[in-house]
Amino acid sequence: MSLVHNASCGLLASRSSRRGCPDDALILAQAFYLQANYYEAERSIAPYCLAGAMDAEAALLMASVLRRTGRFSQALALLDELALLDCGLPWLEEIERERKLSRLQKVRSHADSL
Known about the structure:
mainly alpha, Serine Threonine Protein Phosphatase 5, Tetratricopeptide repeat, disordered N terminus
C-alpha cells in the first residue's frame, strides 16, 4: 500500500533522480574545469564523489581536478576506489589513463621541488 502511495505522490521519482550526479551539475562542473576554475568544478561535483554514493563520471572529473591542483595522492586514492566499484567497470581504461597522468605529474612535481 505504501509503495502505491509513494508512487502516486511522486516520492519514488524524486528518490531515483537523486542517484548519481545530475547531468546539469556535471555539465556545469565540466564548464568550470575547462575554464580552469577548479574550485568551482570541485564544489559542483564533490557530493557525488563520496564513498557509497559515487558517480563514476563525477569521480573521474574530480580526479582530474585533484591532479590539476597538485593533489596527486588524493586523485590516485579516488581512482583506486572508483576502480573497485561496479560503476567504475565501464571506465577502467579512462581510470588507468588518469592514473598515469597523476603519477607522471606527481613525479614531475617532486623533481621540480628538488
